[in-house]
Design brief:
- The chain is mainly alpha-helical and about 90 residues long.
- About 40% of the residues lie in helices and about 0% in strands.
């Protein structure tokens, strides 16, 4: 909602200047950053699921993805599920 005291709405130029968010470090392209984040999220889910992909307690269920989609993303990102298997 935008409120104005007058008939015309004016914007201060300083409002339009982008300010980097605190704690955000720029390290390359957006695509590379998103890929790294996706890989980390998948690896965390695999770690929590002990390398199991399918089933109710598997990584795919934790991520809310179909098993086939997760397996495809893992191949694309070069993630080996067996690194997360526990005996």
């Amino acid at each position: 909602m935008i409120l104005s005291d007058g008939d015309a709405f004016r914007v201060e130029a300083s409002w339009l200047t982008p300010v980097p968010a605190e704690g955000v470090v720029r390290t390359g392209s957006l695509t590379a950053d998103l890929t790294q984040r996706e890989k980390a999220i998948i690896e965390d889910a695999l770690r929590d699921a002990h390398g199991v992909i399918g089933g109710a307690a598997g990584a795919a269920a934790k991520l809310g993805l179909p098993r086939q989609t997760l397996e495809s993303r893992m191949r694309k990102l070069g993630i080996n599920r067996y690194r997360f298997k526990t005996s």
